[in-house]
Amino acid sequence: MTSRNRYDRRGFSLLELLVSAGIVVILLGVLLPGLSHAREQAKAACCRSNIRQLALANGLYSQESGGVYVPGASDFLSNLHRWHGERSSLYEPFVSARGPLVPYLGSEGAIRVCPAFRPDSKGFEAGNGGYGYNNAYVGVRTATDRHGKVIVVSDLAGATADRVKHAGETVMFTDSAFADAGLIEYSFAEPRFHPSYGSRADPSIHFRHARTANVAWCDGHVSGERRTFTWSTGIYNGDPARLSLGWFGETDDNGLFDLR
User: Fold this and answer.
1) pTM for this structure?
2) Is residue 46 part of a domain?
3) Are residues 116 and 43 in contact, defined by beta-carbon separation less than 8 angstroms?
4) Domain coverage including residue 76
C-alpha cells in the first residue's frame, strides 16, 4: 500500500468553485424570469376567475330581481351603498359582507381580491377587490332625451338585462384603480366620456397584467384587453399613463359601455 490514505479525496480548486458558481448564476438567470412570468400568469388566471364570478353573480342577481342588474351606488348622495358593500356612516369603510352580491358569490360570500393588485393606499372606494363596475350604464336606470342626452332616471336599481342589446360587446366589470396621490382602489369602470354631460372622464381601467386588463362582459365571458388610449384631466395628482390606467378599444367613444 502507498503511504497516502486511500480514503483521501482531492478537494475543489478555487477555479472549479468559481466555474460552478458561474454556472449556477447563469442557470438562475435563465430560470428566474420564466418563474416570474409563470407567477404573473397564475395571478392573471386567478383574476380572470374572480371577475368572471362577479359577472355570474350579477347575472344571478338579475334573474332573482326581475331582470334588473345590481345598482352600482344605490342612493348615491347618501354615499353608504356600493355594488361591493355597505357602510353605516361616511367615516367607515365599505363592508363587503353586507354587499348585494354576497348571496351569489359562493360559500365565502366575499369579493375576492385580485392577487396582482397592489394599491399605494386604500382610497375612498376600498373593498372592491380591485374591480370596477360599469355603473354609468349597467349600474343605473337611464333614459335618453330628445337631444340624445343620457339621463339617470334612478340609481336605486341597475339597468334591465333586456336593454343590453349586445351583451357580448358591453362591459360589466374590469380591472380597476384610480390615479390620485398614487394608485388607489376605485369601484367603477368609467367610460371614455361622462354620458350625462359629455366631458371626458379620468380613466379607471387598470392594465396590471403585463399591460393587459381583464374584462367581464354582460354575457359572462372574460377577455384580456390592451390599452389603446389614456388621458388625465389634471384635477388629480396621479399620472394615469404611468400607473397603467386608460381604456381599450379602437374608437374614441362609449360604444363598449353603453347599452345601444
Assistant:
1) 0.85
2) yes
3) yes
4) 14-246
